[in-house]
Amino acid sequence: MDEHTRSGRGLAEPLDLLVTGVTALTGEPGAAPILDARIGIRAGRLVSIEPAAGEPPAARKTLHRPGRLAIPGLVNIHTHANLSMVRGVAEDLGFAPAYTPGIPQGHMVRPDEAYAIARLGALEAMLFGSTLINDTFVHADVVTPAMAELGLRVWSCGRIHDVDFSGVSTGRWEHCDAIGERTLDEALALAERYEGKSDLRIGVQLAAHAPDTCSTPFLRRIRDASERTGLRVTTHLSQSKVELARIRARDGLSPPELLDEVGLLNDRLLAAHCIHVSDADIARIGRAGITVAHIAKGNATGATIAPTQALRAAGARLSLGTDNMHADMVEVMRWALAVGRIQQGAVTDAWQPETVFEMATLGGARAMGLADEIGSLVPGKRADLVLLDLRRPHLTPARNPLGTLVHTGQGRDVETVIVDGAVVVEDGCPTQVDAEAIRRDAEDAIAALWARAAGG
């Protein structure tokens, strides 16, 4: 029995925070909703979660929130906060922003602009109920602490690549050792600064951008760095036909075959997309036990769907990310449920709201190596939880709270966000930052970027 539940201490000391009156979904497999739940928090961890009975325990602060739904904090395992800079435009171009000419590119973004725009993306994610984001883009040394200041957990890394991105969108693919050395060294320096040193508020995964933007020798260097440091690796995999063609021409392999050959295809890999995969690729991915970051809405917007059913059947683990342009994990759950059913051609017991809810919570925590700390509401775990307002017309009635959340909920229904026992969003507003100032600063930075992109 740990210190949070040891007899005597839990009864003698008042709670730091007590949440009452809520319907709670713990996120534990097979667990039923807890009606009129009390959630006790002390020293940043969950002490109790149980139906109300008798007098409530003493607490320094109580949030009585009847009509709200309490869920574990959502874990967004693949996002690019800075790419709000192409919101409403890149979705309709048919390809990822980094590969698309005529719009702002990552190499164009100055550190001060990255700071402003990343805070906007992190704010959006937190307001929509994400308590952890796994973010990659540029100027990670600047944006990582800037995003964490908002109150959520931030795993971050600059994109690691040795391609010269200034030519990619125009079809010029040149790999440069100096670029690879710089991006990998910057990632390792970020990890040295934060990994294991911030009480799980900031972390690093090595963000190998993609097989086509990393040369084969450089991918081996990333593998060596991962093995040496113990850091997990996150990447984009089989996200486009261009990637497949380039890897086939360069290496005579499919992207999953290449990552397997260089030693990166393993159970510590988090791979976004996995759309364009053959049956042999799916079997290989499943045998390796990688985690697939399913980008359900973003992929469908681009007219593609990852073969989630086949990947899961083969042994891959599934989690969810928002990727580009928006940060609503509730909406992503709904898209994941719908596109999975389209693939199956039926509504089945194996693909239900609890399936995608697990992908957005405990499945995401597993992908980050944090399942013992976050991802479900269990005594002893970190007190990361979200309250959504079920009293709204589109959530009434909520006879099946989870089904109602997944089918009709929105990130905008989030009322309260708690991270490590601290309330970081209250009544839909951040408690530690000025939301309007963040929005205004990001809007100015994005306008400057678009002006430069238009000027060539």
Automatic annotation (TrEMBL):
Uppermost EC category: hydrolase
One Pfam family matching this protein: Amidohydro_1
Record EC number: 3.8.1.8
The entry's keywords: Hydrolase
Lineage, opening ranks: Bacteria, Pseudomonadati, Pseudomonadota, Alphaproteobacteria, Hyphomicrobiales
UniProt domain Amidohydrolase-related: residue ranges: 70-424
MF (Gene Ontology): atrazine chlorohydrolase activity; hydrolase activity, acting on carbon-nitrogen (but not peptide) bonds
Family from the record: Belongs to the metallo-dependent hydrolases superfamily. ATZ/TRZ family.
Protein known as: Atrazine chlorohydrolase
Cross-referenced Gene3D superfamilies: Metal-dependent hydrolases, Urease, subunit C, domain 1
Cell cycle among keywords: no
InterPro entries in the cross-refs: Amidohydro-rel (IPR006680), Metal-dep_hydrolase_composite (IPR011059), Metal_Hydrolase (IPR032466), MTA/SAH_deaminase (IPR050287)
